[in-house]
Amino acid sequence: xARRQTIASDISEQEQPNSQQKAAPQPPLADRSSQPDPNGxxxxxxxxxxxxxxxxxxxxxxxxYFSINAAGHVTVSPKGDRGGSLDLYELVNALKLxxxxxxxxxxxxxxxxxxxxxxxxxxxxxxARYSYAGAYRGVFPVKCNQQRHLIEDLVxxxxxHQFGLEAGSKPELMIALATLDTPxxxxxxxxxxxxxxxxxxxxxxxxxHTPIIVLEQFEEVDxxxxxxxxLHIEPILGVRAKLSAKGIGRWGTSAGDRAKFGLTVPEIxxxxxxxxxxxxxxxxxxxxxxxxxxxPAISVIKDAIREAGQIYVELxxxxxxxxxxxxxxGLGVDYDGSKTNFYASKNYSMQNYANxxxxxxxxxxxERNVPVPTLVSESGRAIASHQSVLVFDVLGTSDVVxxxxxxxxxxxxxxxxxxxxxxxxxxxxxxxEAYHDATQFKEEAVSMFGFGYISLTDRARAERLYxxxxxxxxxxxxxxxxxxxxxxxxxxxxxxxxxxx
Length: 501
Description:
This protein is α/β, with parallel strands linked by helices. Helix content is 40%, strand content 15%. It has 16 helices and 18 strands. An eight-stranded parallel barrel has the order 8-9-10-11-12-13-14-15, surrounded by six helices. Residues 9-43 have low confidence and may be disordered.
């Protein structure tokens, strides 16, 4: 089995998972009239570099780090639009000459540095634009990537910006304590906490860190009070609010009344009262919320910021020593390049995100005469997603057999004759109906085979006819401006499967 090798400042080897199979990326139906036919049919025009750019949408998701050069090779610009690029194909060939074969995981630490620079620059620009009186302090969630080389690089690159870390467990807290050496950088302590976790976080203050223990379960209030009395350490505390604003996408349940972590508004009020009784209300300095990862729509972020901002000013009015507003994660990555609110995309830029966070918090605080907080975000994927590339061999492909069918005779089972008749009758006027008919006849053939009414050879012939119908229908659908909803998945159904390792 091949082993994946990681290429960066040094070369190491890691065990490679078993061979994978993936469907080849497919563009919209109407955009593929010039794509080569995997079954050998002549294309309508020669395949060009521009066709590849459109097919893989590299200008949508790759900018400013990935593009295609005049030779048709993928290029990487580790410093983004600040200049300098390399040919990924030539790099892989050069590594092969050093007996470093595929698969390879190639890390570009300059991309990691550039992402940190961009995020801080966006917030700096927003702070200047809206005359925001506070500052921005980003943190990286260790859970997004616990690899030592990445965390150490991130801490080093983040030093000029006092960029910190977020820990969601005791092991992650240990990682953060061992690597974070930036004066003034925040150490956000999230996740489930037992007594040992809380005491370790408090003791980190004596080591010169700035740990903020975020209360995410109401039971943690008593644990914090007990640990503070035991260790004679005044902690820095935060509270995570369960917002009514709902997230969307795959991680949308991170927010809302039934979210796993966070305190409800009544619990927040109760926590304030308990901290006041324990003379620790002055320790409550941060409000945190999290509405999910990979938020595709900026409207969701705006709604959450608006609600969280009101909670922040109310906590300040209640006597808490509020200093920080932690907007959590959610800053998305445009994986498919569509710039929409689809779950694999986002309809906003990093600058849009920073502008909305800064502007809304400023407006809310100014309206209520409360000093603006230091803004914190826990952007993980937006920082770390671009910095590594996995290069692997394509070992083979599996294509749908859709060759021209042979005319059946009178002895052929009726279901096969029906499929052939459907194939012969497909036109631009009835291709949607023909798809439904072909699907029905194929299902009938499978059912009849299960009851022993047709032979294995007959079933094979029925399946070949079905795929021939699908190929003919797909060729027509690609030429249409509008494609019916029930045919949208036809590209994926007919896609080649690539076997890689």
